[in-house]
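Note to self: user wants both folds in one dump. Writing first protein now.
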Amino acid sequence: MSQLKAVRAEPPADEPAEPSSTTAFYRPETYRAEESIGWMMRRIMTAVSQAVEVQMHQPHSPTYPQWMPLHKLSLGLGATVAELARECELDTGAMTRLLDRLEAKGLCRRVRSVADRRVVNIELTDEGRAAGQEVPRVLCQVQNDHLAGFSEDEWQQLKSYLRRILDNAQALSARREKDDSTSS
């Protein structure tokens, strides 16, 4: 199978290209963490999350991690803990803890399903719906502030680069999962 990969010039259209192993952008002897794309992306995410927190400065308002499930619920995506966890790319334990906090703030409630008593649905309260509708406005403002000085073309190019990195990350993850499943 590895011989086939070496011979194939281009992947099928539905399969992301394999990352090139010929270009080594980072080398151990010159590596500086602050020049790492991972470090920079992490710093950007920290800055964005802190800016969102500042925008939502009220004492009982949701925190940055709590915004995602609120927003997903306000869009009607995910009615149970498991569905919402999948939508937010979190494990169910972390989602349960987030929902506990949102429920304590009066932004959502858990309601047992009438059709299946084993299922617990999550519903937004009126305050939760209002907070969920604020998410796009706050995130747009914060992200636009962080993109100050970028032209439309630069913004599109940046998104293209980030999508390419994400595609590479997903392809690497899929290959690792495939390798793990064939080696066990």
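First done. Writing the second protein, which came from a different request thread.
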Amino acid sequence: MIKDILISEVMKKKVISLHPKDDITMANDIFSEYKIHHIPVLVNTKVVGIISLGDLLFMERKELLNQDKFPSFMQMGSRKIEDIMTGEPYTIEASESLGDALDLMIESRVNCLPVVDNENELVGIITTFDLINFLNKQLVEC
């Protein structure tokens, strides 16, 4: 059954990551170049956050709306990943099932889960796009 397939069989293993102290422009460059929507934020190999394209777009929109007001910390040059990332994101282990990932994504209303080992070290990522792509391949094989 599809829900019982392990995350390790569907997840992306090559993952681009950022550090909390990296400049936000790095995230923008990565989103543009690689056409992805989520970037795990790591300290060493431990997942400490996640940044999405939506987070970046929301920040840019907020700045545009506040242009005539007193400059925010973002506009004053402290534009770091840690300023807009979601800290302590939901994660899942590679040994769990697609059903577990789907349940967690639906329950938590997230589109991406960093995949970690038992020491919270990043080993991959699974997104709603990965799940849809996997399901599409299964349907083609039927």
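Dump finished. Worth passing along: The first helix runs from residue 24 to 34.
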